[in-house]
Amino acid sequence: MTRHPARTFLDAGVLIAAYGTQRPYTNVALEVLRDPHRIFLSSPFVRHEVCPKALFNRRQQEYRFYLEYFQSTAMFNDVRLILERAGHEAARSGVGAMDSLHIAAAHLFVARQVSLGRFQDRDAFISALVRTEAEIFDQLDRGEPLPVDGHLARRLATLIEEGEASGDYVTAATEDFDAMEREAVDLFRSRRAP
What we know:
mainly alpha; 9 helices; 3 strands; 3-stranded parallel β-sheet
């Protein structure tokens, strides 16, 4: 049986835990991130929850960790559409502001997958998602470890080791953070260039 990748939308707390700032949950969060049978979905709002805080607290390695993650996610970035959909979602279901933004981004991502012909309709997307998640739970119930993609495992291990070995925090001026951000933007653009 062909295993379809699980589409997974991680909350900011999972990313924070994966970096190691919430130690009791680090291993569990890293296991999810290392699962090669997942496609990670995100929104600009999750990115905004974690990246500026890492920069504000002068945690450059943590910031790089998040950038690496977001570069590997599928993301719906049309903020106008997300806000419009989020307003309807919050009014319909009563969820909070951030949750409605995340839900809206996920709905729009699914709609995009359908429009690209990757799924016949929204129900087909959800069926594939549920089927994949059930396969993962069955695997765990059988006591089988989740497979780890070697490339992702090495990248995460390197980032974590680099962060732990980087020593104490150093004082940095606004100009230093501006330079780091420019470097990250340049790196991001160079990876997006054809």
